[in-house]
Amino acid sequence: MLDPLLLTANVADSAPLMALVGLGDEPAGLLPARQQMALSLGWHIILACFGVAFPAMIFVMHLIGIRRNDPDALLLARKWAKVSAVLFAIGAVSGTVLSFEMGLLWPGLMGTYGDVLGLPFAFEGLAFFVEAIFLGIYLYGWDRMPPRRHLLMVVPMAVTGVLGTFFVIAVNAWMNAPVGFDLVDGEVTNVDPWAVLLNPDAFWQFLHMWVAAYMVAGFTIASVYAVGMLRGRRDRAHRLGFTLAFAFASLSAVVQPLVGHLLGSRLAETQPAKLAAFELATETESPSPLRLGGLLIDGEVRWSIDIPYLGSLIARNSFTKPVEGLSSFPVQDRPPVNITHLAFQSMVGIGTLLMVAAVVFWVARWRGRDLLERRWFLRFAAVSGALAVVAMEAGWIATEVGRQPWIVYGFMRTPEAAGENSGLWWLLGTTAVVYTLMTIGAVVVLRSMARRWRSGEIDLPSPYGPEAQRPHGSGASAPEEAKQ
Amino acid sequence: MSLAVVVAAALFVGVLAYALFGGADFGSGFYDLTAGGTARGAELRTLVDHSIGPVWEANHVWLIYVLVTWWTAFPETFAAAMSTLILPMLLALLGIVLRGASFAFRKYAATLGQARLFGAIFAISSVITPFFLGAVAGAIASGRVPATGRGDLWTSWLNPTSVFGGIIAVGTCAFLAGTFLCADARRSGQRRLAEQLRQRTLAVGAVTGITVFAALIPLQRDAPTLADGLRTQAAPLIAISALAGIATLVLVGIRRFAVARVTALVAVAAVVTGWGVGQYPWLLVDQVTITDAAGAPATLQALLVAVGLAAVIVLPALGYLYKLTQSESWSR
Ligand code: HDD
Ligand code: HEM
Ligand code: HEM
Predict the structure, then answer these.
(1) What are phi and psi of A293, to 5 degrees?
(2) Contact at 8 Å (CB) between A273 and A326?
(3) Partners of residue A295 on adjacent β-strands
(4) What span, in angstroms and rounded, lies between the C-alpha atoms of B142 and B166?
(5) CA dihedral for B120, B121, B125, B126, sign (positive or negative)
(6) How far apart (Å, rounded) are the C-alpha atoms in residues A105 and B111?
(7) A124 contacts in chain B (CB < 8 Å)
(8) Which residue minimizes the CA distance to atom 35 of ligand 1?
(9) What is the pLDDT of residue A1?
(10) B58: which chain A residues are within 8 Å (Cβ-Cβ)?
(11) Which residue of B has its CA nearest to A459?
(12) Which of A93, A128, A133, A172 most suits a substitution to test ligand 3, by most atoms within 8 Å of the C-beta?
């Protein structure tokens, strides 16, 4: 779990739920499959954000370098490209894990709806193909291609990363608001795979995720440079790196609340029970208040701050239209309320904070005050990356847990999708270990890269290559053995 | 040909491409593993970095293509295969994850100790992973994946056909990688390295070729449907494979590495296609045919659109990548 709040919420949620479901009738594969899905997706999505947003940032940095003949920018672009090589590799393998998991964990879903939801995945595959191809060309193209053509190789990466996001989000949006088939006597018929793509819910959800990816990558990279500046490294490259990344992040942070609001205003129609959980609305009240914080304990809302009218205003764009309360839904159709509510509010709270921070920074700069001279601002910037990641994970938890008990909203309950495989616990344990090791490996390697760059190395030759292995000055190689 | 068969063919093209190109990437792990100590293996390991570095992620996407096409076009068989073959699938997946991550980590590791650790993980997982994928193929081809319910968790992939499938997969990967690495070493002017690789490639090629033909004997009893197909409709492919394999050995022997790459690809492609043609029209042998396994026709049509787009968008880009990496200017 991400934060202690969510942990408490989870405990508060699960007590009545367990009593209700009576663990006995759930398939053995359900609980481990859920945990596995949350772990592997929650991990992949962070790297995916870099896959989506990093190419665009590298492009701009590289462009500045070429246009202004700026050696600092060119060097930064080169370093960012090396960092992205490491991140993309683990992003790609963790994405592969997901492709296997769709079938391994959710045979009921894939067996029944595979041909309805599969098409976006096929297009996603295309997008990643193109992304991986140009990644290879760009990374190895340094000093091997004419500079302008080399720069152009980033463009397909930046575009296909975004397209890939759209396709994969279309699947998730379809789970939230299923379209493109009819259910006749329990049989799926009239399948229209294109409907899954051409679906307004997919568009809004995608837009929100795209912007989130730019926020996550932008704030995280800015954080790295903020830490450097706090430690007294105030050279031009640090300022340039910070400013570009923070600019991307700021732009996204400012539009994100609007996009989120537009996305949320669809919920009253598509998933009212989820909206009720987001807003912690137990009863249908007109007008509905906005509830800040609070937990639902034994059917009572405790410790919340209620602001009258604002709930209706935000969720329904109206002074009177109510948010439908949880009491309008049968108990077995309600999501776990507390975790959904708190996750949602963590996301919105952090989103608002980051937006304010971005506005403050640029307004101050415009008025001639440089907040990079202020330690309090740098400290805030240093944690902004982590905040953005938490906001994004919280958003996903709100979305996914808020959809429960449905895997395909209104059509298939999550237990129906799971298999009877209790051995999945082993898989979960192994995944936790492997992902922990992979995280450690990535951190160790990235930090050592940064350390070597600080000490003035540029190319980072591998320690096992012939250069490093050859005794100094012996010139052991035969003349025709060209240097690598 | 029905729509379902066309889609199955497109799916199989993905299997083939992954076996050839993804396979060659995996196979280079074999030479990395057997390159010897740090000093002795320095050149070879750097060559491996250099020759698979730019392409492995792109080649890897063929696997994703196969998985998504499979579950979209033939959803129930995908669910069936995943539940029966969960163990080899997960082991292959583990290998894929470890291979990719440790390959990237090794390249940028700061110390020799770290590079050694990551390198060992990379090389070992590269060698082992194809075994599990080959075992999966063997399980399907020998009719051990039931269309409904769940087959045996262990014997479904620990049986003569699967074990031979696994060994052949490991061997063909190493064989392909060998011919490619020989050509790469030659192109970058490393004669000694090319010579060292040449000998190993010859050994691997001979062993793999013998294994492929030895496997035909136990197949008669263990996978009669497939064996039957191999003797009839797929017989020409097996013959082509034998000829191309021998030609490759001769070409590598006389150091014509560039052409040997082509014949090696032909030899392996013919074996893999032989399996596909041999088990036609079954999707899961003795259980469901391709036509019966197909999902909604509208989805199959849409998939063909995706495949068409792949042909016009992905293939040229992929060709460009290969052209660059196989060209003189990129060898330095
Ligand atoms: C940096 C990340 C980030 C930030 C700052 C925000 N969000 Fe968000 N939100 C996400 C990242 C995210 C996400 C990527 O995690 C989700 C999960 C599914 C999705 O498409 O986006 C999401 C889901 C999500 C949903 C659920 C949609 C559904 O279940 O169908 C709503 C209603 C909002 N968001 C609304 C907002 C509002 C009003 C914000 C105001 C500040 C906000 N989000 C900031
Ligand atoms: C396109 C993207 C995604 C798809 C297609 C997807 C699909 C799924 C599926 C099939 C399940 C299991 C069924 C269910 O519990 O309803 C699930 C559950 C879950 N997913 Fe997602 N997911 C996506 C993104 C994410 C991300 C990025 C996260 C990040 C944290 C996430 C977190 C979770 C969690 C926490 C659950 C468990 C919910 C519960 O059972 O209580 N998902 N998702
Ligand atoms: C069920 C959900 C998901 C599945 C099955 C999935 C699948 C995959 C696969 C197979 C890859 C590897 C492609 C390669 O080899 O290069 C990948 C990478 C990637 N995925 Fe996911 N993914 C999922 C969720 C997401 C989400 C929600 C996003 C949204 C932003 C996303 C964005 C990406 C990106 C950008 C990459 C490229 C990796 C990189 O270059 O770092 N994925 N994904």
Answers:
(1) 65, -160
(2) yes
(3) A302
(4) 13
(5) negative
(6) 39
(7) 68
(8) A260
(9) 38
(10) 129, 132-133, 135-136
(11) B108
(12) A128
User: Residue A341 in 3-state DSSP?
Assistant: helix
Give the residue-averaged pLDDT of A250-262. Answer: 94
Contact A100 B67 (CB under 8 A): yes
How many angstroms away from the CA of A114 is the closest CA of chain B? Answer: 5
Alpha helices in chain B (DSSP H): 3-17, 23-33, 38-52, 56-73, 75-84, 86-108, 112-141, 160-187, 191-222, 224-231, 235-253, 257-279, 290-293, 297-309, 315-325
Q: How far is A133 from chain B (nearest CA, A)?
A: 5
- The stretch B44-68 carries a mean pLDDT of 89
Paired tokens of A257: 């609340």
Task: Write the ipTM.
Answer: 0.88
| CB-nearest partner of B332 from A103, A139, A482 | A482
Structure tokens belonging to residue A460: 């980072």
Q: Do A462 and B46 touch (CB under 8 A)?
A: yes
Q: CA-nearest residue of chain B to A464?
A: B42
Residues 6+ apart with CB under 8 A from A92: A128, A132, B57, B60, B100
pLDDT at A85 over 60: yes
Secondary structure class of A182 (helix, strand, coil): strand
Q: What percent of chain B has pLDDT over 70?
A: 98
Nearest ligand 2 atom to alpha carbon A403: 16
Q: Quick one: closest CA in B to A187, which residue? A: B296
* pLDDT tens profile B236-291: 999 999 999 999 999 998 989 989 999 999 999 999 999 999 988 888 888 888 88
3-state secondary structure of A302: strand
- Rounded to the nearest angstrom, the gap between the alpha carbon of residue B206 and the centroid of all alpha carbons in its chain is 18
3-state secondary structure of A300: strand
Q: In this complex, do A119 and B302 lie within 8 Å of one another by their Cβ atoms? A: yes
How many A from CA of B49 to the centre of ligand 2? 36
Of A126, A128, A448, the CB nearest to B306: A126
pLDDT in tens, A122-161: 899 889 989 999 998 998 888 888 888 899 999 999 999 9
Q: In sequence order, what E strands does A289-370 have?
A: 290-297, 300-307
A170-174, A389-393, A411-415: lowest mean pLDDT where?
Answer: A411-415
- Residue of B64, B77, B320, B325 for testing the chain A interface, max A β-carbons within 10 Å: B64
Domain boundaries, chain B: 3-213+279-331
pTM of the model: 0.90
Q: Does B299 touch chain A (CB under 8 A)?
A: yes
